[in-house]
Amino acid sequence: MDLKSKHAAPVLTDPVPVSKSRLGISSLLSYSSPGAAFPSGLYLTIPRKKPVPGKLDDVRAAGWLDAMKASSPPRKKLTKDFNIEITSEDNDVAYSSWMIKYPSALTSFENIMNYAKGKRIALFLDYDGTLSPIVDDPDRAFMSNAMRIAVRDAAEYFPTAIISGRSRDMVYEFVGLTELYYAGSHGMDIMGPVRDLACADDHPNCIRSTDKQGKEVNLFQPASEFLPMIDEVFRTLVENTKGIKGTKVENHKFCASVHYRNVDEKNWPAVAQCVHDVLKDYPRLRLTHGRKVLEVRPVIDWDKGKAVEFLLESLGLGNSEDVLPIYVGDDRTDEDAFKVLREGQRGYGILVSSVPKESNAFYSLRDPSEVMDFLKLLVEWKKSKKGKGAL
Ligand SMILES: O=P(O)(O)OC[C@H]1O[C@H](O[C@H]2O[C@H](CO)[C@@H](O)[C@H](O)[C@H]2O)[C@H](O)[C@@H](O)[C@@H]1O
């Protein structure tokens, strides 16, 4: 199969409209590419360098570099023992104003539970930056054992799924809990429960399979035809970026990630240009921006939001008034899930962020440790309900 075409340009970034002035917060961090969507200098001042003929202008024009700079909260200071991102005092005022719009899910817990009365909660959790802190080495993004216990306990009471940009196998290795459902590759690789024949009947890319414990499951891979293409692109990206110190390329089966967190900022244009040049040959692939990572994925109408809908359906919880889905995530790709919940008026998105960000979420949590506290509160709440005889 000819996996590439020399004649078409790739679909570039996926800008999300951002209103910066609603809260009067000038430091609002944008998920989208400011260079592409806004007048220059709105969020970041990108110094104008003399263009390298025919080369770096491509990625500048496409807004990639601006998006790369805006893609993760700046590291103000690092604690000695934990390599995690935290905000400085300067940002606290902006953060407090931002929380008027995105209240803490901890302090609003009672409100959330009032709404949850008589409903079944379904939990959806992102992995990186939500269950594990953001660290320099993606291979070492371990979740703490305390977090693992909190997730396991929550899964005992609520159907719980992890939806990650990583490959499904990799995220399962990190989490290691058999009681959950897993979706990898930004929802393009879902292993869900077998309820009835609906999955196979409704979706051509859904097959019956068995999980690692030998349990029968439905495996839904809407981008399965892209497997050889992603593999080819992954190998090309590894080859083409190997001269750029600090670059790391990951193969997540139905998408590939090019990390530049450990690349000297002066070499970011070279990283971007490499990815841009490779993508030019693959019009059926597109680029999205994550936290200090460029992600190459198929142009298909599928994302974490669709994955949430699919899982709800598979769990027998779709289109049901008495179900309250809660999705906790920190990344731009999680916005698709927040949007599905918000627009369908079905449940709550909770954004994990230590800096103000425009979002489709309803609530916020500052960091993974607050996510753990929230999960514990959910379990306590459920236990107290059980104690009172209500299930
Ligand atoms: O959907 P997620 O589970 O949040 O996965 C998104 C990406 O997470 C990983 O990268 C991010 O976390 C790394 C470890 O903390 C960090 O080093 C990197 O800068 C972040 O972008 C993962 O490696 C990516 O492939 C995922 O797409």
From TrEMBL:
Q: In which pathway does it act?
A: Glycan biosynthesis; trehalose biosynthesis
Which Pfam families does the annotation name?
A: Trehalose_PPase (PF02358)
**Cofactor(s) needed for function:** a divalent metal cation
EC annotation from Swiss-Prot or TrEMBL: 3.1.3.12
Drop me one GO molecular function for this one.
trehalose-phosphatase activity
Q: Which UniProt keywords apply?
A: Hydrolase
Biological process (GO), any one: trehalose biosynthetic process
Known InterPro entries for this protein?
Answer: HAD-like_sf, HAD-SF_hydro_IIB, HAD_sf, OTSB-like, Trehalose_PPase
Q: Which reaction does it catalyse?
A: alpha,alpha-trehalose 6-phosphate + H2O = alpha,alpha-trehalose + phosphate
Known Gene3D superfamilies for this protein? HAD superfamily/HAD-like
Which PANTHER family does the entry mention? TREHALOSE 6-PHOSPHATE PHOSPHATASE (PTHR43768), TREHALOSE-PHOSPHATE PHOSPHATASE F-RELATED (PTHR43768:SF17)
- Role played: Removes the phosphate from trehalose 6-phosphate to produce free trehalose.
**Family (UniProt):** Belongs to the trehalose phosphatase family.
Name assigned to this protein? Trehalose 6-phosphate phosphatase
